[in-house]
Design goal:
Elements lengths: L16 E12 L5 E17 L7 E5 L13 H17 L6 H5 L3 H11 L4 H9 L3 H19 L10
Antiparallel strand pairs: 1-2, 2-3
Helix pairs in contact: 1-3, 1-5, 3-5, 4-5
């Protein structure tokens, strides 16, 4: 599965990275599109979109572009920061979460599960998918949760130069 930059535009360019996996859920939307839930197995990088006569888009991909083997665990500080920001975002959104169950998840499942269910836009979720390592994904996830929490709390986010 690979996302278009603008889902409402049928011919919009595709993002360069997608994911191979198993479709575990499908929901038809009011506008006739479908929301597909994919249990991802392995990321790929698109080489080129294929010109085939099918009702869906096709691409030639590099399935070996990412090393998606078992990643090393997060540092204790990084793990704590992910859990802390997840709790803060959950509280800000008034979500009921079993935090004891969350604390038992392994690092990769924790980061990927939050990335999947958090109310981030398509571009943010794509950036999480494209993060090279679990550490990179965790760092980005923390930043996105902080921005999302600020938005939920009605804060104005001031741009910064770095």
């Amino acid at each position: 599965m690979i996302q278009p930059h603008a889902p409402e535009d049928e011919g919009a360019p595709l993002y360069p990275v997608g994911c191979v996996g198993e479709i575990v859920g499908v929901e038809e939307l009011d506008d006739g599109r479908y929301n597909i839930i994919l249990h991802g197995w392995h990321r790929f990088r698109m080489i080129a979109e294929a010109d085939l006569e099918t009702p869906y888009r096709n691409a030639d991909v590099d399935a070996g572009a990412f090393d998606d083997k078992e990643p090393p665990p997060l540092s204790l500080a990084a793990r704590a920061e992910v859990e802390r920001e997840a709790r803060r975002l959950g509280d800000a959104m008034r979500l009921s979460v079993d935090w004891q169950a969350v604390s038992r998840l392994d690092d990769e499942l924790l980061v990927n599960a939050i990335a999947q269910v958090a109310p981030f836009d398509v571009g943010a979720k794509q950036a999480l998918l494209e993060a090279a390592t679990l550490d990179d994904r965790a760092d980005l996830l923390v930043q996105l949760m902080q921005f999302q929490r600020a938005a939920v709390n009605g804060a104005e986010i001031q741009p910064t130069l770095q």
